[in-house]
Amino acid sequence: MNRIMFALLCVWLMPANGWASVVFPMDSDALIARAKLDQQEQVAGYDEVTNVLRRIVVDVDGNKVTRRIQALWFYPDTSSVEEYGTESIYFDDVSESVRVHTAATLSPDGTVSQFDPANAQYGDSDQYNTFSNGRVLYLALPGMQANGYTVLDYEITSDLKLTETPFADHIRAESLFPLRQFELIVRAPTVTLNWDNSHPAVYCESLAHETRCSGQDIPALQFDSTTYWRDKLRGVSFAVNLDWSELAAHALTLYQNAFTEQSEVESLYQRLVDGIDSKAQRIEALFRFVAEDIRYVSLSTEGHTHTPHTNDSVIRNRYGDCKDKTALLQALLALEGVEATPVLVSTNRTDPDRLVLPSLNYFNHIVLCLAYQGQRYCLDPTDSTVHWQSTSNWIQGKVALPLTSTTKPEQIPAEKHRWTMDILSELVFTEAGGLHEVQTRTYSDAFAAYMREQLRGSDTDEQQQMLVRQYQQVVADTDNVSAMALAGTQREDDYRQLQVRTEANYSAFATTDNHLRYTEDDAWLVDDLQSSYLDNEYDAVTLDGVRYRSRYNVDVTAHWRVMSPAPTVELVHRFGSFKRVSKILNDGRLSIETILEIPHQTIGLTEQDEFNQLLDRFLALQTIRIEAPFSADSANP
Amino acid sequence: MTESVSAPEPEISGSVTAPRTAWFDFLLLLLTLGLYTPFLLVSQIRDLKKLYQSQRKPWLWFFVPLFLPAQLFALPSLHRELTGYEQRMGLTLQNWIAVLWIIAVVLLTLLSSVINRSETVAEFWLFPILALLAGLYSLLAWRIHRIKRVDTRLHEQPRQPATHWWEWVVAIMGFLLTIVLAALMVFESMMEDVLARHVDVPAFTVEGTGLTWPIQRVPWLEIETPEDPDDLVTLRGVNRGFIVNVYQYSNQSVNEVLASRHIQAMNIDDGMVCSEHQTFEPGSLNVKAVQECITSIDFGTDAQFSAVLERDGTVYELYALVATPESEDGGIMTSIRAAIEGFSLQ
Question: What is the pLDDT confidence band of residue B119, given thresholds at 50, 70 and 90?
């Protein structure tokens, strides 16, 4: 599975378009001989799945690029055979052709089983509503056994005339499994290529029009689930000799295609802003239209991998992908007098420093950034759940390239507190010693968008059931609760916030003829804290940032008299803070306000224990305590 | 020949107590630890009123030994009046002696009041002060008896006996009370010598734990720890104005300990107002929580303090119960607050 993920990366780096063909000359036994040699040398085999050889030869000749890829893999057991037994070759059936020279297995007893081309299977690499020329060739290799080898030797030829971006490639030198021998040859007699080697175990030398790299016994790449592995993956990169500004200019040239036909934009603009006075509300209306009324459909086939469709066609079709939507929104905002900049985004990278050579291949998304009243906003019109002044969760902190004349990779700013929530709980102790609770939760910005996404597509009853289940999971597993979304779910609502109201009744539990000793977990804070523990083994963690504000107003006057406020808590640490203040209100109720803040930050591996200890302390002291003396005066009239 | 002519003395308006030896008064006052002084003064002033039509109100003199401000006016006034009688009877007394006597009474009364309210001076020191006061007030009685002796009118009048039977009863009861009190104090002193030791260091450390806190303002005594497995050490003030325990809990959280203390405070007085603050100790993730519960009583303050530290799942508590005639900002409260604030684990 993980190899598939790496292959997906590789295919993303490939251009799309044009013609396609796959042929199986099956004309080389050299790699099988290499496998047999390794089998003789490694009688005991290897302890784990091992990439015995990875050899790549890249020939760049004018507009033709040929990549010869040779790979030997060793599989030590049946489970690895089961999981990785089918090889996949990703290609673009318009701009690329595939020649398979060898596809075979070598069993432990030395038997070679050749792949029968008649068994080749093909699939699309696309997802729902995303269409491209990406294809997958599946090779279910025969005769695979534990302690056996797979042998794959194939060649992909690309026609650069059919691609929309300048040539660039990244040859990884590491994967999830150890690599015994790495060899790379890049020949470019007619074009000047820049190259960068980021792996310390790989040695490269440049000859005339040729670069040769090699490395041995390269350990497996290790990373944690929270890590964007593209930030970490090392290898050898090649790219034509362009700087970031030149690449941005190239991308901008392609992007301008959207504006070549936009006769319908102005009338659309007039219709959308009609009757709206506030500029901010007009921007919201324009954004809302593009985000919600232009459905997401990506037609990234030939000629449109990086080139948007015209604005008029997008308006007519009422669909488009990120570049289509971004361009249309930019045109609408221009009529509003708002100047915006298209910004390429890599949604799977967070470290701009790892973009070692200028290339457009790093980026898979585009958004629109603008300045409004002194503040910069980045609008993602593919995200219909978010307010235009809130940055979509999935682009915060990601690598970006503004398409401007002087540009370089940067990060989309991450909000200090991405998950912001305000909880107001009104508790009333009943005569019988039970509890009536009304809770109003207000989610803000990205958190509101997340909740909106959860509730979207459900009718009112389903939403209420979902919210009740959420309450039961987080606060208390009681049947005596009702829940409803108060605001933020309808299009006319303010999308910066989303409000949920719950009402719950708890039967008598308190002794009503003695002092009150009551404790309650600050449930929503607890829920967040419990999910915030870090257990990385290899990498630092970048936290999204949370801010929870919980307010309790507690009425105990049925039987008790509050004499003292709840404990003040002031736990301040460099990673975050937990603060609680309390006071007695004029009407005798007890007011308790708690604020948990863990801002956006990176926690190093060596700081992880301290961070978890901090969470321990927060959790240990978060409990709300109410102690109040019994008051005969407060009893039933 | 010169004749001295003086105004005739007024008639005696009732029977007065016959003069008696001042030693009896001294013993009576000493054995009753000064408690008889107000009664003695009232009876003597009443006799002066009968003898010389004095305008004084005898019952008011009940309060003169008790209230220092009253002494500042009453004693000089009485001295001037007695001086007048003495001159009429041909008696003399150096004025400076009387002034010295007044100053001594005032100062000793002030001193006894200070000692009585102080948590820093042992009650034992009240005894010599009370003895001196008894001596001074018996001198006053001697002065009045001296006047009575030379007043010839008394020789012709029926007189009450010099001593009354109830005074003997009071003397005997006082004697017994003094013996008992003295015995108790001696016993307590001996027990303190055995069970308590003065803490004479600026910071107290619980042996073997690293728990420490400052000792300021008032003396602390370490006493034998009761057989409570959680109780590491027990201390108290010199006059039991406060008692401090240090506990160690392995199965209670900070909040459980402090919630229990709050309930305990409400049980002491449901009008007790508590405040609590939980924080990290500087530069660490170690939690420290401080709870202060306080209520004002008629003559002073009741309070309960708790400082709680949490380390590696173990909770340590410095718990102080204060019952003091002091106000909130008195020496004991300041000392306890400093201890609570400075309670730490080294």
Answer: low
Q: Look over chain A and give the mean of its residue pLDDT values, rounded to a whole number.
A: 91
* pLDDT for the residue numbered B248: 94
User: What are the structural domain ranges in chain A?
Assistant: 2-241, 247-411, 419-634
pLDDT tens digits for range A213-228 = 999 999 999 999 999 9
Q: Is A632 on the interface with B (CB under 8 A)?
A: no
Q: What's the total number of domains in chain B?
A: 2
Yes or no, beta carbons of B259 and A519 under 8 Å apart: yes
Convert the pLDDT of each residue in B261-303 to its tens digit. 999 999 998 889 999 999 999 888 999 999 999 987 777 788 9
Please state which CATH class domain A419-634 belongs to. mainly beta
Q: Using the beta-carbon criterion (under 8 Å), do A613 and B289 form an inter-chain contact?
A: no
Q: Residue A151's CB: how many other CB atoms inside 10 A?
A: 31
Determine contact, residues B218/B120, Cβ cutoff 8 Å: yes
Q: Which CATH number fits domain A247-411: 3.30.70.1150, 3.10.620.30, 2.40.50.140, 3.40.640.10?
A: 3.10.620.30
Q: Give the C-alpha separation, A365 to A545, whole Å.
A: 24
For chain B, which residues lie within 8 Å of any Cβ of chain A, measuring from their own Cβ? 253-255, 258-259, 262-263, 266-267, 270-280, 285, 287, 289, 291, 293, 310
C-alpha–C-alpha distance, residues A178 and A50, integer Å: 5
The yes-or-no verdict on residue A49 having pLDDT over 50 is yes
d(CA A295, CA B241): 79
B-proximal residues of A, 582-611, CB under 8 Å: 610
| A275 confidence band (pLDDT: 50, 70, 90) | very high
Which of A563, A565, A573 is opposite residue B280, by nearest beta carbon? A573
Tell me which residue in A617, A630, A631 faces B287 most closely, judged by beta carbons.
Answer: A617
CA-angle at A551, arms to A545 and A555, nearest 5°: 160
- The pTM of this model reads 0.80
Nearest CA-CA partner of A379 in A316, A267, A288, A276: A288
> Are the Cβ atoms of A629 and B266 closer than 8 angstroms?
yes
Residue A14's pLDDT is 37
CATH code reported for the domain at A2-241? 2.60.40.3140
Complex confidence, ipTM: 0.83
Residue of A483, A131, A175, A176 whose CA lies nearest to A320: A131
Contact A564 B271 (CB under 8 A): no
Q: Please give the backbone phi and psi of residue B17, each rounded to the nearest 5 degrees, phi first.
A: -75, 135
Interchain proximity A627–B273, CB inside 8 Å? no
Segment holding A272, helix H or strand E? helix A265-273
Window from A497-506, B19-28, B323-332 with minimum mean pLDDT: B323-332
Residue among A570, A572, A627 whose CB faces B277 most closely? A570
Residues near B39 by beta carbon (within 8 Å), at least 6 away in sequence: B62
Are B220 and B174 in a shared domain?
no
CB contact under 8 A, A568 and B277: yes
Listed residues B148, B176, B193: the one ending a domain? B193
- Calculate how close chain B gets to A610, using CA atoms only, in Å: 8
Are B262 and A629 inside 8 Å of each other by CB? no
Domain boundary among B166, B193, B220: B193
* Residue A7 confidence class, pLDDT cut points 50, 70, 90: very low
